[in-house]
Write a structure and sequence with these properties.
Elements (H helix, E strand, L loop, with lengths): L1 H22 L4 E5 L5 H8 L9 E5 L3 H4 L5 E4 L2 H9 L6 E4 L3 H14 L5 E5 H7 L6 H7 E3 L1 H7 L4 E3 L11 H12 L9 H15 L6 H11 L7 H12 L4 H15 L2 H22 L6 H5 L1 H11 L3 H15 L6 H4 L6
Parallel strand pairs: 1-4, 1-5, 2-3, 2-4
Antiparallel strand pairs: 6-7
Length: about 350
């Protein structure tokens, strides 16, 4: 029954997407977010004979989810994707980014590098919200997600429901609610680090773009936590930047200096230390749900939401959470261990 309900949900949202596309004037449509059955939606939109897009560019690894789809091509980096989009010569294009952070960076890069392209966000959670009338209030609350930075970048509403959580879960509902709350506790705002991110990062964001939103706090972690772990998070910051676009090392070093000067102020240092203490404690609880199983898959959009607030993609953010959970468990984590997997 759950399978039939899921297919019915996808069929309804697919029709809503087609109606949305009929009203859209975008040349490039960015499908967001992960955890919203984008592969199934895209397969319906790219059916042979009447495709909704002349071409779909998808992040590396997504191709295996859609199979041998005609006119779907993987990209390896945003630089590569931008180059392909600049060669656009008519017809509507679809883009499936790996993360919401990547979607934000893509928008900013296109505004600078290809301002003639009309880029729009197709925020699927909003359409799932409109199609979820038949679900219970508890399930709707569980499925609720919000990507504020994504909405700001594309100037649209970015709040709705994740399709992977729109199920009548029965006895598993309480476990999912607990797991979701554990992930949300990692939000900078919940940790008391939201103001710090804005105060320290605002100038760097203006200079380097959305890709560095989490970097100031990553650098702060190194300074504050060095007494308890052999951390080298400036390397982590550089790896995160490299995943989005190439930025001269000198500019990264300037950002490092700016953050360290800010941390010289006792009130800033104390605030960050308190927030990171909460982060470490919360990481231990959240890491329990990173088992690669159904629970982690169900919460994919929630992980993406919190990762975006840190300026990271979910994959790299999970690596940080797992390693800080080790610190909470009394394990010594080296900088190399902390960076393990970043940028690969």
């Amino acid at each position: 029954m759950a399978g039939a309900a899921y297919r019915q949900l996808l069929d309804g949202v697919s029709r809503d997407v087609e109606a949305w596309l009929g009203r859209s004037e975008g040349d490039v449509i960015v499908l967001a977010t992960c955890g919203c059955s984008r592969a199934e939606i895209l397969k319906r939109l790219m059916k042979p004979g009447e495709p909704a897009f002349s071409k779909a560019y998808v992040y590396r690894g997504f191709g295996e989810k859609v199979g041998a789809m005609q006119d779907a091509e993987e990209y390896g980096s945003l630089e590569e994707l931008i180059k392909k989009l600049k060669e656009w010569s008519g017809g509507r294009l679809a883009v499936v980014p790996e993360s919401s952070c990547e979607a934000v960076a893509l928008k900013q890069m296109l505004e600078k590098g290809a301002p003639y392209l009309r880029v729009q966000l197709l925020y699927l959670p909003q359409l799932y919200r409109e199609a979820a009338e038949g679900y219970s209030g508890d399930v709707k609350e569980l499925a609720r997600v919000k990507h504020s930075k994504l909405g700001e970048a594309y100037k649209c509403e970015a709040e709705g429901y994740s399709s992977t959580l729109l199920r009548e879960w029965g006895e598993q509902l309480e476990k999912l609610e607990e797991a979701k709350e554990a992930v949300l506790r990692l939000s900078p705002g919940r940790l008391g680090l939201g103001d710090y991110l804005r105060d320290v990062g605002v100038k760097a964001l203006a200079e380097l773009g959305a890709a560095v939103f989490g970097v100031p706090v990553a650098l702060a972690m190194e300074r504050v936590l060095r007494p308890v772990a052999q951390l080298s998070l400036s390397g982590t910051a550089s790896a995160l930047l490299d995943r989005v676009r190439k930025i001269p090392s000198q500019r990264v070093e300037e950002l490092v200096s700016r953050v360290l000067v800010s941390l010289a102020k006792p009130e800033a240092r104390d605030k960050v230390a308190e927030g990171l203490a909460r982060f470490i404690a919360s990481a231990r609880g959240a890491a329990r749900h990173l088992d690669g199983g159904w629970l982690e898959d169900a919460l994919e959009t929630v992980w993406d939401q919190v990762a975006l607030e840190w300026g990271m993609d979910a994959r790299n953010f999970k690596i940080l959470v797992e390693n800080f959970a080790k610190i909470a468990s009394g394990e010594l984590v080296t900088g190399e261990e902390l960076r393990g997997g970043l940028g690969k």
